Amino acid sequence: MMTTMDYSVTIILCFLLCFGKVHCYDGRLEERDVQMAEKSNENHILKTVSQCFHVRGNPFVTLYCGSNHMIKINRAFHGMHHQNISRCNFLPGDCMDGDLSPYYDWSNCLGAEHCVKSVKQSWLRECGNYSKYLQIDYQCVKNEEVFDICEKSNTYVTEGYIKSPNYPSFYPIHRDCECNISVSGKSRMLVSFYDLLLEMNGKKCADWLMIYDDDYKDLNCGEIMTGMKNVSWQGPQIRLHFHTDVNNTRRQSFSYNTQRNLKGFWVYFNAEPKDEVLVKCGPTKPKKLQSYTPNPIPKGGVVIAGTASTLPRGWSFTLLLMMTVLY
Ligand SMILES: *[C@@H]1O[C@H](CO)[C@@H](O)[C@H](O)[C@H]1NC(C)=O
Ligand SMILES: *[C@@H]1O[C@H](CO)[C@@H](O)[C@H](O)[C@H]1NC(C)=O
Ligand SMILES: *[C@@H]1O[C@H](CO)[C@@H](O)[C@H](O)[C@H]1NC(C)=O
Ligand SMILES: *[C@@H]1O[C@H](CO)[C@@H](O)[C@H](O)[C@H]1NC(C)=O
Ligand SMILES: *[C@@H]1O[C@H](CO)[C@@H](O)[C@H](O)[C@H]1NC(C)=O
C-alpha cells in the first residue's frame, strides 16, 4: 500500500508538472494522439471508427474484428470541431469528452468479434456545445493470445491476457480454476481489468475473481469496465482464482440500471520492466474466503499491492500522470 505521504508527494508532483511546462489535457487533443491511434505493431491491430450524430437515417458505427479476435476498446469519445466542418471524425484541435458511460453500454462490444452502436449526442460542457460525432479507437486481440483460466497451460510470454471460460458468453457454474503468473527477475507485474461482469448476491460476491499474493488479496465481482482498475504487484508470483457458485443467474442489473449479461472476465497482464512471465493455469480445488465483500475500486482506479518503501516511484507516478493526461 502506498502511504498517504507517498500519495500527496506524487499528486503534488503531478500537479506541478501539469501546471508547469508539461502539456496538460485541456479538452483538446494534439496531433500526437492521432498518430498514436493510427500506429500499429505486429501484435495489435488498431482500428478507428467514427460517425456524425446528424446524418440521414439512424447514425451508427460498426466495430469489426472478425473470427478468432476480440474487440478491446482503447478510447471512445464524443467531439466537435470548432469550425463548421463536415467531417465526422477527430481533427487536431477538436473539443471532446471521453466519459461516455452514461450514454453507451460497451458490454456487447468488449470481447466480441463485432458489434454495432447507435451514435448518440451529448452536451460537451467544456466546449459549450453539443457533440457532433462519436469516435472509437479499438484494437483486435487474437484469441490465441488469451489464456482461459480453466484450461491447462504452462507457457512463457512477455504480456498476455486471461479470460473466463466462454468469455464473452456466460461462464460455467460451479467451477474453481486458477492461473499462477510469475517472473524470475525483479520486475513488478501489472494487471489491467478490461471487462468483468460476475454475479453478486446483494453486496457480496457470488461468483468472483480473486488476485492475490502473500501480502495482498484483491477480490472482484460485479462490474468493472475497461480502464477502471489497474493493479500493480510486487511479484515474483501472483495467483488468480476464479470461482463460480451453483446459481445459474445469467443477467444482473448494474450501474445506470442497465441489465447486463454476466460475461465473466478479461484481464491483461505484463511485467514492468519487461520480462518473461510464466503462466500456469488450470482447474483447482475450491477456495474458502473469509469475506465475500469485493475490494472497492479506489478513486483513480489504481491499486498498488505491496509496500511503499520497496516500490520504485516511477510506476505509480507514470500511472497518475497518465490519468491526469487522459481525464
Ligand atoms: C455549415 O456548413 C454547411 C455547408 O457546408 C451549411 O449548409 C450550414 O448552414 C453551415 N452551418 C452553419 C451553422 O454555419
Ligand atoms: C454550436 O455549434 C453550432 C453549429 O456548429 C454553431 O452554430 C453554434 O454557434 C455553436 N454554439 C456555441 C455556443 O458555440
Ligand atoms: C440465485 O441468485 C438470485 C439472484 O442473486 C437469488 O435471488 C437466488 O436466491 C439465488 N438462488 C440460489 C439457489 O442461491
Ligand atoms: C499455483 O501455485 C501453487 C503453489 O504456489 C500450487 O500449489 C498450484 O498447484 C499452482 N497452480 C497451477 C495451476 O499451477
Ligand atoms: C490502466 O492502465 C491503462 C494502460 O495500461 C491506462 O490506459 C488506463 O487509463 C489505466 N487506468 C487507470 C484507472 O489508471
TrEMBL record:
InterPro entries reported in the protein's UniProt record: CUB_dom, Lectin_gal-bd_sf, Sperma_CUB_dom_sf
Which PROSITE patterns does the UniProt entry name for this protein?
Answer: CUB
Q: Which CDD domains match?
A: CUB (cd00041), Gal_Rha_Lectin (cd22823)
> Domain CUB spans what residues?
150-272
Q: Which residues form the signal peptide?
A: 1-24
UniProt-listed SUPFAM superfamilies: Spermadhesin, CUB domain
List cystine links: 150-177
Task: Write the record's keywords in alphabetical order, separated by commas.
Answer: Disulfide bond, Repeat, Signal
Q: Which SMART domains match?
A: CUB
- Carries keyword Transmembrane? no
Name it: Uncharacterized protein LOC106180139
Its encoding gene is what? LOC106180139
